[in-house]
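FORM 7B: Structural annotation worksheet

SECTION A. Query
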Amino acid sequence: MTALSLCGAALLAFYPPPSTFARLLPADNPWVRDGRFSVPVCNGVQCKLCPFECFLPEGARGRCKVRVNYGGKIKTLVYSKAVSVHLDPIEKKPVYHLYPGSLIYSLASPGCNLRCKACQNWEISQIYPEQADKTTLVPERLDLKTDSASGRVYGELKQKEVATLSPEEIVSCALATRSRAIAYTYSEPAVFYEYMYDTARLARKKGLKNVMVSAGYINREPLEELLEYMDVVKIDLKGFDERFYGEYVGGGLERVKDTLRTLKKNGGLFEIVNLVVPGLNDGKESIRAMTAWIRKDLGADVPLFFSRFSPNYRLASIAATPVETLTRARDEALKQGLKYVYVGNVPGHAGENTYCPVCGRILVRRYGYAVLENRLTPAGGRCPHDGTRIPGIW
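SECTION B. Predicted structure
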């Protein structure tokens, strides 16, 4: 066997080819459910979930790999198919204006409608659902224990291995792990819309908050329906020119800006993250244009993160972002009038903290994912020095 054949065999072992839909739809397949947002067109259906609006003849899948036309109807192939589930600090999302220092139950299904060359989770976002592991280890319960010798309190996490994880089970596990919110994250939650929607609705009834971590490539109608149950939406604004979006993201900037405008109009909390990639989206003019647009169209109160890029996926040859570049970007955003501007993936940077925009004092002091100090007033989330209200859920 040649070296090329061996490489091919190894690749197939880790990532077997996608199955035909006939194999995917046995009567007992728990992951296949009716999908929403489609219209019949000619001899197929057109998906209306995201801006690509894929036309799907019988048996064809969309760009996301997880939505298919079967019998003239859209089906989702990933309902209850969680492939990555973790108990995270909420700062890891990153989300800074919701319950600082709390735990958030975080999950993903396979698939994505974009093709980001810097994707940090490409092993799950760029695969077909049948290429994912058959089972997933999920956090089930977090017990607090006390060390008899030192009196130190610590957490003991119990986990279980599952093939399916229903919305009811997610909510139950989130409560049992002392989470205050559920995050739909890691891949692209828009493409597991039905799974996310049903889970978020149940979570709301049980007093949990919902956080969607998304690239924002979703049509207005499904987004507006979803926002009824979302408490915070975090959008990855990848860059600020169409060329970059087309070449390195596989989408269009204007559609993401439309999503951000919809979030602004809705009136709920949302935060923005920009992953700064050296030589690609870190130009001074690009940063200036982006921050000026955010200030003008979205307002000064929107939290904005500039996160450090690390070599990864198809951009593994590009060096990590210099800290000076992130500091310069933050300075520009503050100059444009944005009030809450952060630096991500640089533990110890002054840009990790939340400051009062009036008196300038630190209100939430952070180091990495840890909250070292929270001085916001317990009721109302105000600066204790001058009473300034800080937007968020505290």
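SECTION C. Observations
The longest strand covers residues 136-146. Residues 284-298 form the longest helix (15 residues).

SECTION D. Sign-off
Analyst initials: ____
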